[in-house]
Amino acid sequence: MPTTPDDIVNEALDEIGVPEIGDIHEGSRAANVARRNYDPMLRMMHAAAPWNFARRQRQIDLRGDACGQYHNNRNVPQPWAYMYEWPNDCVHARWVLGLDAYALDASGAPLAAAPAWNRPAPFIVTDAPLVNDIESDWASTEGHNPESTRVIATNQLGAMLVYTGLVQYPDAWDAGFRRAFVAALAARLAIPCIEDKAQARAMRSDQLAIARDALIEARVRDGNEGWTLTDHTPDWIRARTSTAWNAWHGSGWSNFPFVEDAGGVY
Amino acid sequence: MKPEDIVNQALEIIGHEQRIGSFWDGSPEAVVARDMWSETRDALLVRTQPEWAREDVPLMVSKTAPAYYDEQTPWEPALYPDMPWLYEYAQPEECLVPLALKPRAHTMPIWRPRAMRFRVKTGTNQTYVLLGNDPAPILTCIVHTHDPAIWYEDFIELMVMALSKKLERRFAPHPQERKPDANNPG
Asked: How far apart are CA A186 and CA A45, in angstroms?
């Protein structure tokens, strides 16, 4: 039997010494409070650190083109060229992978894309007046509401987004994330579920400290775990190892893997 | 364990010597105990909300809000639920305390639990109704649980104590009428 949200809530209740629940829909005070807090806290903790277990990458859906060449909607925030929909499962956009494609083929795939350059492209996350059907599932989809949609504006054609995706299944979580999330949830449950409010405040502070430590640890571990280059190659070295035509053009396939643009933070 | 056994335990606690054979044996103790039995039981169920009295009951919609209100479709309490709710449901007869509403889930387990609001109000025919926003929710509630055979021991003890407090006013011997304790006559 997989670990369920009910089990996670019980772990949080254990942390603050409150009797466990049978299930999260049982109607008890603890269950009702947990039901109100579980989803927002889960999203918040996903977005709080660049968790490796939640890293996702995919080509995002074009929703606007300032030139009108690849999309009818030309209402793109200035000065950006393209606008893409915030993925349904995204809780935090980390970076847009620069592809430098010159066009899209009939299927929408970027032509002459160069993802191996591993170059981050500038982008912003913003709100755009793209309406969603009132009957749709917008209420449970982050970034969507009847009046507007959260979008990613960038100059990249066929943009590839690297983001933190919502992982709903506790068994797929990193152990550090589980520890952080349980502590953060326990902190939210302490005040409503512990009758002695002085004790509840103390419990909340303890649990917040545990969550904070776990987040710091996650950021450190992310830096150590991923294969990202942090070496900066001085321009005089690049000039020495480059041919004449690409000597000062920064990263490129011929310079791979000297990707000085993509530091270890991604 | 029968209800009469619980009443007899309460009578013993207050030092009353008469026991009852059944609620219907015609004795004053049985008549008084019968009067207070169901209210005491339900009050304790409401107060303690034990897990063994918790059940899920599907709700049936009795009123639905229109797509929108305007001059052609004014809000009428007899036709539509209270604003801003979308649905009104009859409270099931077995429900004693409504605790929570949940949707009929498509997948199990439910990986993204969400809260569902609801409100209880008195309907037009003086019965309780529920207001919510889901077309077919399931109500988790404390239900009338009459059979002492399924009560947990702590609830039986609570019932004995609550009944003894009520029966004490009527049947406890007057202090001057109490028999002296053989071990402590003073």
From this structure: 13
Q: What is the pLDDT of residues A1-60, one digit of tens each?
A: 899 999 999 999 999 999 999 999 999 999 999 999 999 999 999 999 989 899 999 999
How many Cβ contacts (< 8 angstroms) between chains A and B?
49
C-beta neighbour count of A116 within 10 angstroms: 13
Tell me what ipTM this predicted complex has.
0.78
Q: Please list every residue in chain B whose beta carbon sits closer than 8 Å to the beta carbon of residue A168.
A: 111-112
Strand partners, A128: A149
User: What secondary structure does DSSP assign to A141-152, as a single string?
Assistant: STTB-SS-EEEE
Query: Residue A192's CB: how many other CB atoms inside 10 A?
Result: 15
pLDDT of residue B126: 84
For chain A, give every domain's residue range: 5-51+174-225, 54-165, 229-266
Distance, in Å, from the CA atom of A85 to the CA atom of A150, rounded to the nearest integer, reads: 7
pLDDT digits (tens, 9 = 90+) for B48-64: 999 999 999 999 999 99
Task: State the distance between the two ends of chain A, measured CA to CA, in whole angstroms.
Answer: 35
Residue of chain A whose Cα is closest to the Cα of B48: A28
- Domains in chain B: boundaries: 3-49+151-177, 54-143
Quick one: chain A helix, strand, coil %, rounded to 5?
Answer: 40, 20, 45
Measure B56 CA to nearest chain A CA, in Å.
Answer: 9
How far are the Cα atoms of B54, B96, B159 from residue B49, in angstroms, in the given order? 8, 10, 14
The three-point CA angle B175-B178-B183 to 5° equals 120
| Helical (H) or strand (E) element with A93 | strand A90-98
pTM equals 0.80
Evaluate whether A56 touches A50 at the Cβ level (below 8 Å).
no
